[in-house]
Amino acid sequence: MRLIPTGHALSIFLAITFTLCIAWGLVAPPSLHMHGAWEQLLPGFEFISVSSFLLGLIESYVYGWYIALVFVPLYRLFNRQIA
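-> structure tokens emitted (83 positions)
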């Protein structure tokens, strides 16, 4: 497993997921919103302004890289072949 493709894939996945959740929050009734969870997970994010959305998008992308930086070395460690 390679770090750079995994980092980009996870980051884009989280950015797309964040965008879809925000879009859902704009059209769904308030009882079905996810913005409360995003506000707790992403420092500085508040529902909804353009600057807050961009901040959440950047933070989602950074979280993807954080996951990759932790996960890929762990995967490599536990995937070693015993010779």
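The helical segments are 3-27, 35-41, 50-78.
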